[in-house]
Amino acid sequence: MSTGMKNLARTLDSLDFLKLDRRTFMKAVGALGATAFLGTYKTEIVSALEFAETKIIWLHGAECTGCSESILNGGNPDIIQAINKLNVNLAYHETLLAQQGLFVDDEPVNTSELNSELLVDELIEEGNYILVVEGAIANGPDGSGRYCVIGNRTFKELFEKAAKNANAILAVGTCATYGGITCADSAIADVTDYRGVAFTKEDSSKGMLTELGIHKPVINIPGCPAHPDWILLTVGAVILGKIKVPDDLDTVLDQYGRPIVFFPTDHTVHENCPRRGYYDRGEFDEQIGGEKCLWKLGCKAPYSHADCAIRRWNGSVSMCTQAGSPCIACVEPGFPDSSRPFYVEAEDKGVLLGANIDTLSKAAVGAATVVAGVHAVRRMKGE
Amino acid sequence: MVNVTVDPLTRIEGHLRLSTEVDANGVITDSQSSCLMFRGFERILQNQDPRDAALLVQRICGVCPTSHSLTAANALDDLFGVADTIPKDALVARNINQALNFLASHATHIYILWGPDLANPAYRDVLTPLGETGTAVWKEMVGRFAPISYKIDGESVPVGSSYLAAIPEKKRLQEAIAVIGGKMPHQVTSYPGGYTYKPNVADIGKLSSYYLQVMDFVSSYTLRVPFDTWIENTYKASSPQKAVNFVVEHLTDLVDKSVTSNDFSREAGWGDTEFYAAFGSELVGETLLGLPASLKHDKIGGYSDPSKIAFLAYGGFFNPENGDGYDPSSPAGERFLTSGIVTGSLEYQNLDTSKITESVAHAFYEDTADLHPSKGETNPFTDPDAIRFDQGSDSRYSWNKAPRYDGIPCEVGPLARMLAAKEPLVTGLALAFNENGYSAANVYTRMMARIQETAIIANELLKWVTEDYDPNGRIAVDTDLSMAKDSTGMGLWEAPRGALGHWVSTDSNSKVVNYQPVVPSTWNLSPRDSAGVPGPLEQSLIGAKINAAENSLGVNYTNPVNILHIGRSYDPCVSCAVHTIDLTGKNTPRTLRIV
Description:
Chain B: GO terms for molecular function: ferredoxin hydrogenase activity; nickel cation binding. The complex is a heterodimer of chains A (383) and B (595). Chain A is built from 16 helices and eleven strands. Chain A is α/β, with parallel strands linked by helices and 383 residues long. With 595 residues, chain B is an alpha+beta fold. Chain B has a single domain (1-575), classed as Cytochrome-c3 Hydrogenase, chain B (Orthogonal Bundle). Classes of the chains: A alpha/beta (383), B alpha+beta (595).
């Protein structure tokens, strides 16, 4: 680690995670990566044994497993490091566990060492776990939840049971947080009636927890997929007590339940975009394969509240706009409808986050969105 | 008769239920494969800009998003009328992206999803009574393949060495994709006309470096014989017989060295491939090598009636030698991995996509005739009580439709591709099994095909990166939305799990009328069709003994390890199978399609 990095680490040591001002935090975590960041707390992590084991139950609803794939890509820390350093017991995760559901003549058989259905019920019974949800929750048809059935029960039933006993809930990915792709506008969206955990699109009254009458603290980590650092750092912060659940949530989360440090209200992907220089000079690509600003190819980075441009993806090697593809604002509650059509300039589209830009200025969506949007539009008009 | 059901079959993508009827001898007499989830995001492309397709459809699957987005890009190339002009370097960039995704996906399947079943305590019970050799083999299996958080009889089992080492490699491969694809999962560079990013010299350097690191893993864990030696003597062998002979001779040498010491470690030359190649098969391990025991995976997962099964490949990876442009219909021999149909009796035929139909007779949709996917129509059940998965083979029991080629269920995936391409080793194994009274397709050949395909693609990837790709070349041709007016497009491609096709059509405003993917797991996991013929996975369950090593310890309904092996050998992806992004263009509000 360079001297500069060491200084940063020392600075971090004396500060409280997720309560840093954004600039310091971004600079530090962006530069260090999460392993070093967690490493700065090593005086606290003298031994994993000092932490009581934190149990995680990770449930999959209607999803593509992209967020599980993503967490396996976690570089800093990687998942095994996180599990070891933080004494995490990833007790149930459908894609990783040894077990599977086993039934003989409809009765569950064997033990929880081989039968995942017995395992999940035992774990829920024991309580004292963090529930992670990946994927949306089917409410249809007619509130039955039968569009998603796992092990002889609807996912809605399993989610309800697991949510009731959870200490806290982490919704991971845009499907679990806001419904995502399963809730995209279509003629049949009302029939399938998929829901996010605490929100459906921007509406918290339509979250599945509200539907079920369950009141639990929820942290939303959107993204399609969610960035592994966002997930692992948040889990780390909760385990280390850097976020106290539920006391701190009002101050560390935004109105859509997202940790502000990763999804800053006053910062968009646009601000640190690697192509930003071209934007400032008014140089735009109008066909793919170039290196200039992607605004005219429909880039939604000015509306996307995430630190992708600083953190970047997969070991910080790249990100969407760096690779010549417009940002599609996949962390926003209205995704994908609020970003479509992807390759058409937003000002032509008229609708963002469910409102046009004029309406936006009156709505409480966050001043930065409007400023960035207006700024972009002015730039486009040559003002 | 006893009903033995696995639900959910975990360590796959999505939610799958395998229900079987098992007789008193522990033999499966009937089976149903049920996909349990219906997302229903049909119509999300309808009346929309077709260019959104490549980014949207890859949300069908986070494990093989590259495949979906590239298939979409192929379909859009055709839709925009530019397929014959796509620059060679864009095609090579697509190849590199897809090849890396294959390696990551196959490695994930082999080590993270499939491998842990080799640490099932059933094998301890079968192997350890066989003395020192059996005990040593069991130690290798649990020592290499045990998953995280694993316990046997209340004792925590350390994570397997191969499992643990594979996780960073998978991550490294995803990182490599991000270098040229922006991020992973859901890379972003597929687009009609070419590729959004022009990889530069530094990127090529990075990819080469990643490649070398991954190959270090391969030589330390996967394959202990030098990689080039393996490729030279199997993939490039002059006949299937010679390829098989090379492997058998190589394994014979290993057995000779290890049989007295009972040392089957990697240090003794037993890479994971050598280990499985020898101990996975009764024919290879016991009959040819004279080993005292094997897992007998060649006895399970096969097909009893060759007239009711075929192997289908659409063809994948462009041949850089062909220069700019490609033919969207993927004629025989044009792609690096060719298109084609291989019959149940192993005869090759050219692909004719007009012979594809789909049946909904056993799926939760209102009845229609068997139709070509481009004409299909599906009305899903909306009565909750009608959605039942436990009513037997005569009922409707899945959200998956039943695609058929000329009326025949088809297996797709590495085995189908290797057979269509006449790859010497896999072809040789298939023929050897056939001649000795085994099914040519079985769990062992399916896994060996996946391993061999990984090696072949790794070998070709290096050529694409270092020889074929020109960082000074062109990466895209210009397109304009008006070029997609009143048009149709077909994208034929290969995903890690098998043949993947997308079909798209547009109206006079260049808006999407119809968009439909037909995906690999829809073929492999299909339920019965209107003639009552079971799908490939269902057929391969019927006749299998449920317990380890041919029920050698008697029948135990509560640990049906062979059902797990057979199910997972297809690398099922249920989100793909029941993605329902298909757009019929028929506007009845509750009309959905599942393909």
